[in-house]
């Protein structure tokens, strides 16, 4: 009866808006991904995927979202409108984190277990260069000109800057304990680096990697999500909090408890809600951004990691989507 | 069932966030953050297994014993083995040694772009039947475990270690974990590599291990209960497995070279090692040097087992 009521609610939501919002979550220890419906806050489907899927990303044209499975070395592309599987990109080795340069020409992957960073030409996903680095390459950022990519090296406490065109190391410097999340601020002159082994975020000069500032945050500062040009959300995994950072004043302006090792985050298209993976609780927390208050959570699979919120066409999304990891497809 | 899952995960998260994650953070061990969370679940499952043995299997052993217990002192050491094993002390030691090896194999495979095959790739319909998929992986795992068990009896150096498990004269539900640490290490290494190569998910591996170990504890129980004529051929129970622990006699030499299967007797039936009868036999091994384990505590047994192992392997190494 409860399910029927939710289904009615979902149906009415889709009829009135003609566009739904779906959240895709990668369940990293279940080899699956969940599709959630924002209106009903329910898991609609759970589908299998290659082993150890951790992160996902929109393609530069926004038509597909790539789900990266690290153990099976593949990217599964889903149509962002219908959520149907479009193709699989094979032989992307250990794609733990991945990012596209702002100009869309380069795709960079961090091979977390194999200690290298791969730079691909987006067109055809052709490997341009592989750069071996210190241990545990983790998160990725770019400069605005798409000349440089910045990668945190979590276990070795370093950040490296790599030239995209030549696939060479520009600099590689030690910054602090377990650097993870990294973002370039809109001024293109400051990198923010979250230290998971500490309780702070560093401001780093992208020219040479020198540390130019430190902001105390929460225990095990880990990952960022941009709110707007000025404010950034930060998840703190041991502190189990999400902080809101004002990057102009460089101070934490709000903080909220999000239990269960909060990690990746995304914001709903209307800017009202922040959805956060709760790795340990197998849930996705929903935060009202205006109130900075947790207003709900949705049950998903084991160790949910990456997530993305998409505007989908409810009429086009099939009732039962095909499994996503079983058929070979051309690169 | 959602409330049970929520309670379980909530307890796991609380234990982790209260006791484990602050320690990892303090000692800058954050790269083990997610693995340590899984280890907490392993610990919790161990507690549940100990409770099941103590509260369900032991009362049954008292009520319907297959053999009368002659020496109540002997199973005491097996309780030490069980606590050390189920609460993660021995598995942690095994993990610390085995991880660099299995991790290197995994990295090499990844580096070569070799993704282990998955059964679901061959049979896509399995995607919609997780229980069937789990049972297939379970059967594969048990098949590997059957052959490892035969190797434990077949190679003299491995028997030198494994005989510690067989030396118990009073086999009870606690006896399953009575193993030499080196024996556990070898078995773990082979099973993890096998599981990696057939694509068992880490989450499934823990479930297989936990369900399997519970069945194995039950199969060691001194209980005169079976699953019926058909059931006894589907699942290993005490009658089937206790024959595997029976003392060899001139009439039945090396009777323990039967009924190797840990969970599914099918393997013994297929490979001609199954033996079904309900005769009560004394437990243990006929070799007095191995039987002497019964006079020793945990550490003494480990030392004795290692000495037997060294005596078996050194002449080979010396050529």
Care to describe what's here?
The complex is a heterodimer of chains A (331) and B (319). With 331 residues, chain A is mostly beta strands. Chain A is 5% helix and 53% strand. Chain A contains one helix and 28 strands. In chain A, the strands form seven sheets. Chain A has a four-stranded antiparallel β-sheet with strand order 3-2-1-28. Chain B has helices at 2-26, 33-63, 76-86, 89-111, 119-122, 130-154, 156-166, 181-198, 202-220, 228-234, 238-244, 266-270, 288-291, 298-317. Chain B has one domain (2-317). Chain B has 319 residues and is mostly helical. The mean pLDDT of chain B is 90. In chain B, α2 (33-63) runs parallel beside α9 and α6 (130-154) crosses α8.
- Which strands sit side by side, in order, in the main sheet of chain A? 3-2-1-28
Order of helices and strands of chain A: HEEEEEEEEEEEEEEEEEEEEEEEEEEEE
- Total separate domains of chain B: 1
Secondary-structure element string of chain B? HHHHHHHHHHHHHH
Uncertain segments of chain B:
none
Question: Helices and strands of chain B: which structural class?
Answer: mainly alpha
The radius of gyration of chain A is: 19 Å
Q: If you average the pLDDT of chain B, what whole number results?
A: 90
How would the global form of chain A be characterised? globular
Specify the structural class of chain A.
mainly beta
Main sheet attributes: strand count, strand direction, barrel closure of chain A: 4 strands, antiparallel
Q: What is the chains' assembly state? A: heterodimer
Percent helix among the residues of chain A?
A: under 10%
Q: What fraction of the residues of chain B are assigned to beta strands by DSSP?
A: under 5%
Sheet having the most strands of chain B: none
């Amino acid at each position: 009866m409860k399910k029927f009521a939710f289904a009615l609610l979902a149906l009415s939501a889709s009829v009135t808006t003609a566009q739904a919002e779906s959240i895709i979550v990668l369940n990293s220890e279940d080899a699956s991904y969940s599709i959630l419906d924002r209106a009903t806050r329910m898991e609609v489907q759970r589908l299998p995927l290659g082993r150890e899927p951790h992160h996902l990303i929109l393609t530069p044209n926004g038509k597909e979202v790539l789900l990266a499975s690290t153990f099976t070395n593949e990217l599964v592309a889903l149509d962002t409108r219908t959520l149907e599987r479009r193709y699989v990109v094979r032989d992307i080795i250990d794609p733990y984190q991945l990012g596209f340069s702002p100009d869309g020409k380069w795709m960079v992957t961090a091979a977390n277990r194999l200690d290298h960073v791969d730079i691909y030409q987006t067109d055809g996903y052709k490997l341009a260069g592989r750069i071996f680095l210190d241990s545990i390459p983790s998160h990725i950022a770019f400069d605005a000109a798409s000349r440089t990519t910045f990668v945190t090296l979590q276990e070795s406490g370093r950040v490296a800057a790599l030239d995209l065109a030549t696939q060479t190391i520009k600099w590689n410097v030690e910054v602090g304990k377990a650097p993870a999340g990294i973002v370039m601020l809109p001024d293109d002159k400051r990198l923010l680096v979250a230290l998971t082994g500490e309780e702070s975020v560093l401001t780093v000069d992208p020219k040479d990697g020198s540390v130019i500032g430190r902001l105390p945050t929460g225990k095990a500062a880990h990952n960022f999500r941009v709110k707007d040009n000025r404010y950034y959300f930060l998840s703190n995994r041991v502190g189990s909090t999400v902080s809101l950072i004002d990057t102009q004043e460089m101070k934490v302006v709000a903080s909220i408890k999000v239990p269960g090792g909060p990690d990746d985050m995304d914001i709903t298209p209307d800017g009202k809600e922040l959805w956060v993976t709760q790795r340990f609780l197998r849930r996705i927390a929903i935060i009202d951004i205006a109130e900075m208050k947790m207003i709900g959570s949705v049950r998903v699979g084991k160790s949910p990691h990456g997530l993305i919120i998409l505007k989908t066409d409810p009429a086009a999304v099939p009732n039962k989507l095909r499994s996503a990891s079983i058929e070979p497809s051309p690169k | 069932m959602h409330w049970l899952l929520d309670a379980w995960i909530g307890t796991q998260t609380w234990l982790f966030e209260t006791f484990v994650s602050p320690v990892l953070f303090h000692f800058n061990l954050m790269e083990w953050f997610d693995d340590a969370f899984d280890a907490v679940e392993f610990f919790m499952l161990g507690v549940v297994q100990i409770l099941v043995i103590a509260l369900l299997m032991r009362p049954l052993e008292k009520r319907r014993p297959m053999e009368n217990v002659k020496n109540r002192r002997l199973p005491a050491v097996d309780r030490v083995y069980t606590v050390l094993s189920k609460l993660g002390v021995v598995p942690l030691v095994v993990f610390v040694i085995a991880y660099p090896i299995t991790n290197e194999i995994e990295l090499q495979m990844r580096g070569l772009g070799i993704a282990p095959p998955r059964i679901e790739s061959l049979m896509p319909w399995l995607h919609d039947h997780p229980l069937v998929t789990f049972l297939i992986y379970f059967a594969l795992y048990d098949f590997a475990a059957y052959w490892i068990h035969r190797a434990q009896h077949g190679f003299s150096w491995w028997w030198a270690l494994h005989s510690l498990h067989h030396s118990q004269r009073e086999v009870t539900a606690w006896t399953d974990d009575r193993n030499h640490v080196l024996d556990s290490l070898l078995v773990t290494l082979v099973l993890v590599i096998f599981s990696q190569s057939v694509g068992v998910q880490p989450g499934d591996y823990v479930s297989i291990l936990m369900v399997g170990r519970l069945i194995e504890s039950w199969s060691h129980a001194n209980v005169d209960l079976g699953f019926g004529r058909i059931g006894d051929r589907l699942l290993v129970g005490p009658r089937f497995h206790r024959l595997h622990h029976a003392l060899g006699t001139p009439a039945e030499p090396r009777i323990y070279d039967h009924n190797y299967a840990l969970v599914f007797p099918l393997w013994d039936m297929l490979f001609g090692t199954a033996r079904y009868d309900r005769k009560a036999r004394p437990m243990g091994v006929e070799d007095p040097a191995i039987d002497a384990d019964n006079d020793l505590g945990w550490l003494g047994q480990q030392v004795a087992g290692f000495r037997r192992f060294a005596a078996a392997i050194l002449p080979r190494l010396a050529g």
